[in-house]
Specification:
The chain has four helices and no strands. With about 80 residues, the chain is mostly helical. The chain has a domain of about 55 residues.
C-alpha cells in the first residue's frame, strides 16, 4: 500500500514531497501497545482505562495526535 502511494505521488503533475514515517514503528515493535495490553504488571481498572492520557503505556501513539500530524504534514508548502 505504501509503495502504491509513493508511485502515485511520483507521477503527479504537482510537486509533492512524501515523508514516509511508517517504518519508524519497526524500530520498537513493543512500543505500539495500548492501555488494554496484558503487558501491564496489573490490569488497569475501568477508571484508569477511561483516562488513556494518564494511563497509556505509550503516549506518542495516540490516534488523535497522529491525525493532527498527518493534517499538518499535508498542509506544508513545498519549497
Amino acid at each position: 500500500m505504501v509503495s502504491l502511494a509513493e508511485r502515485t505521488i511520483k507521477k503527479m503533475a504537482t510537486l509533492l514531497t512524501n515523508l514516509n514515517i511508517t517504518w519508524l514503528s519497526e524500530y520498537r515493535r513493543d512500543a505500539n501497545t495500548t492501555i488494554y495490553t496484558s503487558r501491564q504488571p496489573k490490569p488497569l481498572t475501568i477508571e484508569q482505562t477511561e483516562e488513556p492520557i494518564r494511563n497509556a503505556d505509550c503516549r506518542h501513539y495516540i490516534v488523535e495526535a497522529t491525525i493532527s500530524l498527518d493534517r499538518s504534514l499535508v498542509q506544508l508548502p513545498t519549497v
